[in-house]
Each structure stands twice: as C-alpha cells, then as structure tokens.
Design a protein that fits this description.
This protein is 76% helix and 0% strand. It contains 19 helices and no strands. α12 packs antiparallel against α16 and α15 runs antiparallel to α18.
Amino acid sequence: MQTVRHRVSPLGTLYDSAGLSKGVRRSLDLMLLANLFGSLFGIICGTGTASMVGLANELHAGDLAFGLINGIPQAAMLLQVPFAMLVSRTHRRKRYILTYGLFSRAAWLLFGLIPVLLPDRPAGLPLWTMISLLAVSSCFSAAINVCWFPWFSDLAPANIRGRWFSVRDAIIAGASLVFGIVVARLLDTLPVGSRYIVVFLIGGFLGMCDMICFGFCEERYATEPVRMRLTAALDALKNRPFRRLIAMWTAWSFATQMCEPYLSRYSINVMGLTFTQMTVCGTAAASVVTMLAIRRWGRAMDRFGGRSVMYVAAAGAAMSNLFYLFSAPGAVLPVILRNALGAAFWCGSNLAANNMQLYASPDDERPIYIAMFSCITALVGTALGSLTGGVLLETWDAAGLFTGGFDRYKALITLSTLLRLCVVVMLVPKLQNDREGTPVQLAKDAFTRCAKAIRSLGR
C-alpha cells in the first residue's frame, strides 16, 4: 500500500509544535499576509525609498526638508501613548485598525497627484502640501502598531515568536526582491508626469490591503479591559530591563538615522545611479541575503537569546555603511556590498529588538509598553537622528566643509558608524537575555556552521 505524504510548511510545523487551534493558525497566517502587504507598501511609501527620494527631488526638497520628511512619521509616534490607553480600555483593536489605520494608508493615494495638481506658486506649496499630508497620515497610523503587535503576542506563544518572525521576514524579503525591481522600472520608464501617480496609487492600495487583512483575524485578549492612567506610561520606565532596552534602541536609532535616510538620496543624486540600479543594488541585494540569513537568526535567538543576537548582529550592521566611503559616480559595488553584507546583520538586530520588546513587557500592560518603546525610540532616536543628519549636511555645505573625495555625506557616514559601535560596546551588554547563551557561544556556533558548509562545498 502506497503511503501518502503530506507536505508540511515551516509555519504548519511551528503551529503543530505549539498546539495552536485552527482559528489562531488562520489569524497568524492573515497577520503574515498583512505584514507582507505592509512591507510592499513601505517599499514605495516608506521614508528614504526611491519613490520618496524621487518625489522629494521633484518638489525641490533640500537636505533639511528631506530630514523633516523622514522625521515626521517618527514624531507622530507620540500619539501611540493615548492610542494604547484607548486600546487597553476598549479592547477594539480591529475597529481601530479598520478606521484609523485604513484612513492613514488611503491618504497615500493622493501623494502622486501633488506635483501634477498643485502650482509652483507660491514657492514651496507642493512640498509643504506633501509634508502636511504626510503628517496627517502619520498621526492616524500611530494606532496601527499598538494594535497589531499586542494582538500578535496574544495569539502567538512566546516560544515560537522568534521563528515566526524569521519565517515572515524571509517571505517578505523574497516578495520585496521582485516588487522592488518592478517599482524601480516603473520609476525609470514611465513619463515624469505620471510615474508618481501610478506608483503611489499602487502603494496606497497595498497599504489598505494590509489593514483589511486584520478584519478577518480572530480578536483575542490575554487580559481584561483596563482603564490606564497617563502615569501608567511612565511606570513602564520603572521596569529596568525594559528601560535599558529603550535606552539602547533609542541610541542605536539615533546613530543609524543620522545617515540612513540620506544614503538613497546620495546614491541617486551624487553617485548618479538610476532607480533600477539603486533597487537592484539595494532592495534586491538585501532581500536575497535576508532570505538566507533571517531563519538562522530566528533559531539563534531561540537558542542563545535576544541579547546575544543583538550584540553580534548590531556589531556587524554598524560597520556596513563604511562601504560607502569607497563610492564614486557610477560605482555600484559599494552599494551592493553595503546592502548585502549589511542585511545579513541588520535583519538579526531588528528581529532581536522585536522579540525583546515582547519578552520585557508584561502581558497585562503590553500595549502601553509597546507604545512607550515606539514613542521614545521614534522621536528621540529616529526623528531627532534624521533631523540632526539634515542639519549637519546643510551646515557643512554652507561652511564649505568636507569637499572633494571625502565629502559631507562620507563624513556623516563615518560619524554614524562610530556612534553605533559605541552603542554596541556600552549599551548592549546591559540588556537582559532570555536564554543562557552568550554572544561568544553564538559566534562560535556560527563559525562552526560556516566551516562545515564550506567543507561540504569542497567535496
């Protein structure tokens, strides 16, 4: 008698190990689909993307204005605190996702119309209209994170979250690889008058699909509704492990965002790369490496703990931008190396940060903890870092500093790298680890596995 073999997916095996019900499995799959739509939305509508760089250039944005464009979505994260209090009191995550979240994504349908419909007089009207629309969208999107992240944690047991995130990120990386190239080709080939209309219509539609997926998820809460005081947000900072995680990730975000938003702008405006070259060397290269590396980071985190992964991954990610120091007009190799080797590490640090937020926050207060984490790291870290980078670039330019081969962008990259290494050395060791493993053990394990793989290729 022939035995019938059933194909088992990585997520199916993971769900079986946790004994999840059919409804929870379906909800987690829908959340993965929502995250996929959201990531594709971010390829177009995220700050620092080729689409946003092109639109900002079209609207004549300077470095400081570009820093403001990158900082506004992060500053709007302050609204996560009142949204978290609202979610904890009402237990209506699905309603808020399908109203506030859906509206915030629908607003992006209008971005591509700005340079076509608005006149250039008075000067700066299209640019400030885009900035205002971005601010409105960002304010409403503050509800999304405090809804979906605790929602996911109430559905997924702690012992499978690292591997679930790694599977999710691998799928997203593969889809981003293809989609990023398609978007870049549209930007390079469509007429100037219509390229941003088409691209941002696609981005807004994908963002709306992200929100709609949550409408079909099972809504489950680990705790009863609770009326939180505003002072409860400050109580989260009394939790020492959580406070140290916030301090580390805020410093890391500040040092990273000092130069991160400007790398795409530098590649396109100074190095002269096309949208397609930038996407292939950037999104595509990073996606391929992420697909290969992310599940290994997930397994390492479940074995050695989040702090160990953060230490090794952040150290590698901190060095990746140095490849830009060897950049020149038309050169693509520094961009490829930065994005490929950098992705191998920054996907691990992001994975560790996500998992450590859940580990360090109690179930009954998780929404307010997540909100505080997002607010502080986004405002003091990402937004302030982005604006600081813009101010430094314009100040150095006005003063005539860093001209020639070592230009002002390369100076900013060097400063950012030094600050990130300081964060790794001084703040990561203070984080609480959720496993007994150490960074040294993780590094030895990774070296052993790499050596075995190399030997097997030589046979």
